[in-house]
Structures are given as structure tokens and as C-alpha cells.
Amino acid sequence: MEYRLLPIFTLLNIALVATHAALPPEVYWKSVLPTTPMPKAITDILYSDWVEEKSSSVHVGGGGVNVHTGKGGGSGTTVNVGGKGGGGVNVHAGHKGKPVHVSVGSKSPFDYVYAATETQLHDDPNVALFFLEKDLHSGTKLDLHFTRSTSNQATFLSRQVADSIPFSSNKVDFIFNKFSVKPGSEEAQIMKNTISECEEGGIKGEEKYCATSLESMVDFSTSKLGNNVEVVSTEVDKETGLQKYTVAPGVKKLSGDKAVVCHKQNYPYAVFYCHKTETTRAYSVPLEGTNGVRVKAVAVCHTDTSEWNPKHLAFQVLKVKPGTIPVCHFLPEDHVVWVPK
């Protein structure tokens, strides 16, 4: 079922005790991974001036509750993180947004516990991202739809700030109050869905973790793979609708069968659902669209799907059964893959 939402702008006021020892997220990355470049999916949502005032807005829509940040003033909103005004975090609104559509009931197609809904089968652009590993070679033609969510541009908070905000189904009333979200609203349901998916146990053989900051994502991924890693994301020349792409020469396998894949969730700040498995093969795949668009795509192939929900989106799209054949999917632009070098 679809709902029409007006993005709402809210007040977030959370106390933060700042310390001189805390590092901005990008500095923490460099301290732990000095030889590993950040992928575009991460640099695009860095909150670089994390102790300075910036223009920002918080709203719900397009499938989630999101924080947009950007430099400049005018009708935008302001953020103060651990800087002026007593060291608090303040977000307040400046203007209204446009109506958007959102399906509250759909679950993430990258969480393998859930069955697909009818809405996902007909409307979810991620449907076009699933394919079979046997088709992963030069010359293969695939109908694909790469999307960058203009409404899900939630940026990273520093670990200090993120850790000061409850992220638990037991604390949803407190969270709603902090974000001025009305309990029982579509906005509240979206937030509850994200928290619920993060709290669900992983499938057999999967280590699952929801990172609420870049630092926590770094810590989880390096604890599973070590510090000698490559981190990649899909990059698209320009946004287009569903079209036919051809796999170009240069398909490259990125790892053995071990990887950490992190999927961006719908929430007021950047939250990534990460899962580590040892039955995953990651590939770098160059694609060329019929309109000339070039994509540096990242594909993940799952060699053991026996524990997935039999009604998962991938099986319904590809017409295969769990555990019978490797299932692959391209990653949207705001998802990240970590692999050993």
C-alpha cells in the first residue's frame, strides 16, 4: 500500500558532551585505513564540517526519514554539532518540501529473511538489479534501473552524536519525541521498520550489524576482514530510468568468498545495515547503457541462498529456488562493499 507524504521538518535537540580526543569521521577513516580510498557512496554523505554550523534539513519521505546537509544560508536550516551555543546538536526547519510517494510496508530487498510484497514486485526499482552469475560476462545485455534517492541523502553523524541517540525498539517513543515525529504516523512506521530490521537476527552463516556512524562501520568491517581492505560502491555517470545495459569488457572479481556488504537504510541520519558472509563473491562490472551512460557497477553474488526466505524478491524475479544456483545483484549507488585486498 502506498501513502502520500509531505516531507516534514523537525527539531532535533540532543545533548552532546564534546571531547578534544574525538576525531571527525573522515580523519578516523584515514587513521584506521591510511591506504584505502573512500568510495563515492561514503564521500557523498560525509558531514565534513562536523563542528561547524551548516545548512541542513530533516524530513520524512521517499521511503524514509532523512537528513540533508549543505553549505549556505537563506531559507535552509542550521546545524550546530558540538560547536557554538553550548555543545548541543540542533536541527531546525526552514522551508517545505514537495509531496512524495512511499511504501511503508515494503522490507529491504537486501535483507534475506523477508518475503517480497506485491508492491515491491511491481514498483521497487531494485527488482531490476537481480540477475544470475552465469550472465556475468562481456556482451550480456540486462535491463537495469540505477537510482540515486534524492530524498535519502541522510549524512553521517559523528560517533559521539550517533551514540548519544537511542536506536532501539524499546526507545521509539523517546526517538519520535526527539525528531518531533507523531507516533502512529507513516513517518514513525518507517523509522520503526528500520530499527526492527536492524534488530532481527541474521540468517545462518551471516554476521549482521547496523552501523549508526562511519566509525562504527569501519570498526565492524575491519574486525571481520582486517585493515588491508578495498571499499567500493557503484558509480553512475548520470541518472537515467530503466534501460538496457551491456556488460563491457573488464569484469573483475574483487575477493575470495568473504565480504562485508553495507546497505543504506531509511533514517534521519546515515545508518547502514552491514552483513558479513563467507559465501559471497564481489565483482567490479563496467556497464554501457543504450543512451551512452557508463556505470562502474559493483555486483555481489551469493553462492549459498539455502537459508533465504523462499518468497524473497530475488527468487520471484529470477524464477529460481533457494540453494539451487548463485544469485547476484548490482548494488545501488548508496551501498558499499568491503573486501580483502
TrEMBL record:
It comes from the Eukaryota. InterPro entries: BURP, BURP_dom. Residues 1-21 form the signal peptide. Keywords: Signal. Residues 130-341 form the BURP domain. Pfam families: BURP. This is BURP domain-containing protein. It comes from Glycine max.
